[in-house]
Amino acid sequence: MPKLYIGNKNYSSWSMRPWVLLRQAGIPFDEVMVRFDSFDADSEFKRAIGPVNPTGKVPVLVDGDLVVWDTLAIAEYVAETWSDRQLWPADPRARARARSICAEMHSGFTALRGNCPMNIEASLPDTGALIWRDKAGVRADVQRLVDMWSALLQEHGGPMLFGQFSVADAYFAPVCMRLATYALPVPPHIAAYMDRVRALPGVKAWIDEALAEKDFLDFEEPYRLSAAG
């Protein structure tokens, strides 16, 4: 059975993607939680993950003697190894588009990611309103998401971006978390898609476990001094 090494569920958006993909697809795996303490070279986190992954980061998938790091590489390996789950769209053109938007998420949306770090436990609408007012890059990133998701939902008819659940929905699940935490404004049909993603059993399980962690890590919290504040 493969092992998936992840970080804190409340904060680790990159860990969320392959975990949700595996869980939602019904693929058995062992979870290895490597909790964040800091990202310094001598941190417990780095000492634990360093022997597993040469980059010193999560997530990491270990399947026998094979080590796969980088979320997109893990998604590709899972989709190929469990091809019966059809985790990419069957149509070649749709599959190419799904890969394109995942790659765009992988390397883009830097304003949204930088200004709105994932924090599932938090509710930060006031912070989100200030970010929305002051950060043109965030507004542009959200508009790109609205345009992308709207086109795909219209073309494929929902309920997910390519009809049925795929790697693409797992890839954008942390974005749904960010948009909800900071209450960034989106049209009703986009909010409805976000609700459907969050209701997926694999995503709901991640959210529930994130809420149960109760870890407050100040270096992951640019907007709060405590979990209550």
Name the descriptors.
229 residues, 7% strand, alpha+beta, 10 helices, Glutaredoxin, 2 domains, 54% helix, four-stranded mixed beta sheet, Glutathione S-transferase Yfyf (Class Pi), Chain A, domain 2
Strand and helix layout:
Blueprint: E1 3-6, H1 13-25, E2 30-33, H2 44-49, E3 60-63, E4 66-69, H3 71-81, H4 92-107, H5 110-115, H6 125-134, H7 136-156, H8 167-181, H9 188-199, H10 201-213
Parallel strand pairs: 1-2
Antiparallel strand pairs: 1-3, 3-4
Helix pairs in contact: 1-3, 1-8, 1-10, 4-8, 8-9
Structural class: alpha+beta
Low confidence ranges: none
CATH class of the largest domain: Mainly Alpha
The major sheet is characterized as: 4 strands, mixed
Q: What is the number of E strands?
A: 4
Strand order of the largest sheet: 2-1-3-4
Tally of individual domains: 2
Shape: globular
Tell me the CATH topology of the largest domain: Glutathione S-transferase Yfyf (Class Pi), Chain A, domain 2
Question: How many angstroms separate the termini?
Answer: 41 Å
Helix/strand order = EHEHEEHHHHHHHH
CATH architecture annotation of the largest domain: Up-down Bundle
CA radius of gyration is 17 Å
Tell me the strand percentage band.
5-15%
Summarize model confidence as the mean pLDDT. Answer: 97
Secondary structure: helix percent: 40-55%
The helix count comes to 10
What does this entry look like structurally?
The chain is an alpha+beta fold. It has two domains: 3-85, Glutaredoxin (3-Layer(aba) Sandwich), CATH 3.40.30; 92-210, Glutathione S-transferase Yfyf (Class Pi), Chain A, domain 2 (Up-down Bundle), CATH 1.20.1050. Helix content is 54%, strand content 7%. The chain contains ten helices and four strands; from the N terminus they run E-H-E-H-E-E-H-H-H-H-H-H-H-H. The chain has helices at residues 13-25, 44-49, 71-81, 92-107, 110-115, 125-134, 136-156, 167-181, 188-199, 201-213, and strands at residues 3-6, 30-33, 60-63, 66-69. A four-stranded mixed sheet has the order 2-1-3-4, with helices on one face. The longest helix is centred in the middle third of the chain and has 21 residues, at 136-156. It starts with a strand and ends in a 16-residue tail after the last helix. 38% of the residues are buried. The mean pLDDT is 97.
